[in-house]
Specification:
Layout: H1 2-23, H2 26-29, H3 34-40, H4 43-54, H5 61-95, H6 102-111, H7 124-141, H8 145-162, H9 175-187, H10 189-193, H11 199-215, H12 230-251, H13 255-266, H14 268-290, H15 293-317, H16 319-325
């Protein structure tokens, strides 16, 4: 049961990262219509919820912080500084002069919000590091299970109340909101692992989720500091999470499909890092060649998933790429 449930969670992570790539696709962004509101109403809460389920409250604080920095901060800084240096060299070669904005770009990378970095989706990584570290400390000091859930609820309410358009470094102004969903995932981990698939519950959840979107024009966009109506948006987020978990459990009945989606989930870090670049380049190229934006968007969606996975596969086999992008561990030689 546990092994099957872990596979279900991997499938859920895969569905989540597919939604992230789709959410940054022309199909969703060019009008920011209902599909945009549906995806954004739960896909970021879903990732914080899953992060809570995978959170290991073991070892020392130093060990935990170093581990999270290794897996989240290292690829964040490596990717953005590489992009900044390449961009700076290209501009210098093109203009035959030293571009003046490298210091500004560097400051933006360390400030680490969606409005200060070149590749916007990467704001999630340093923020997740902060949230994970704070959650670890809370779980160590707040040991009563009865106190943890009220704390998560209060954190969400406080986070929505103080939400404003001024983003703080590493998006710490979003900390109460993201912390609430992460703690909820941690507290619900045993319940989710033992939860059987229930078709009638899934139908009811889809009906409730659809009704909320039909009657209310609410969504969540944490990068733009928008949460929407507290009750409606929170219900949509929780229902969306439940629907994804249920669909993942259902998909495990089709072995090939579930393995493919779980593999996408396993490479979610690289997809998050590089999907925007590959998807955008492919969309522009196919649009230029064919003039068909729909075809370009679909091609970009596939490329935004497949190409980062290929790069992830390469990084697992290349020592230098492994050291830059992946957590440090001994590499087994491929025969």
């Amino acid at each position: 049961m546990i092994a099957n449930r872990n596979h279900t969670l991997d499938v859920t992570k895969g569905l989540g990262i597919i939604l992230v790539v789709l959410g940054h696709n022309w199909l969703v962004l060019h009008e920011e219509g209902e599909l945009f509101r549906i995806i954004f109403s739960f896909h970021m809460p879903l990732f914080f919820f899953l992060s809570g389920m995978f959170l290991r409250n073991a070892g020392t604080f130093k060990e935990f912080a170093v581990s999270r920095a290794n897996s989240l901060l290292k690829p964040y800084f490596a990717t953005l500084f590489f992009v900044a240096i390449i961009t700076w060299l290209f501009q210098a070669f093109k203009t035959k002069a030293l571009p003046p904005d490298f210091l500004r770009v560097t400051k933006g990378i360390f400030y680490a919000t969606g409005s200060t970095i070149e590749w916007v989706p990467l704001w999630f990584l340093p923020h997740l590091f902060i949230v994970s570290v704070v959650a670890f400390l809370i779980l160590r000091f707040v040991t009563s299970i009865r106190a943890r859930m009220p704390l998560a609820i209060a954190s969400l309410g406080a986070g929505v109340f103080i939400l404003n358009p001024v983003d703080l470094p590493w998006s710490i102004d979003l900390l109460p909101i993201s912390l609430s969903f992460l703690l909820t995932g941690y507290l619900c981990r045993n319940l989710v692992k033992s939860m059987p698939f229930n078709g009638s519950h899934l139908v009811l959840a889809v009906a409730a989720f659809s009704s909320l979107h039909f009657f209310y024009n609410e969504t969540i966009n944490l990068n733009f500091r928008h949460y929407g109506n507290f009750i409606v948006s929170t219900l949509q987020a929780l229902l969306g999470i439940y629907i994804c978990l249920s669909l993942s459990s259902l998909l495990t009945r089709w072995k090939f499909v579930s393995i493919c989606i779980a593999y996408i989930g396993s490479g979610s870090l690289f997809i998050l890092l590089f999907h925007s670049f590959f998807q955008g380049k492919i969309f522009n190229l196919v649009t230029k060649i064919t003039g068909m934006q729909l075809l370009a968007a679909l091609t970009g969606l596939i490329g935004g998933l497949v190409l980062p996975l290929l790069f992830w596969n390469l990084a697992q086999r290349n020592h230098r790429l492994h050291m830059i992008f992946l957590p440090y561990q001994p590499i087994q030689k491929v025969r």
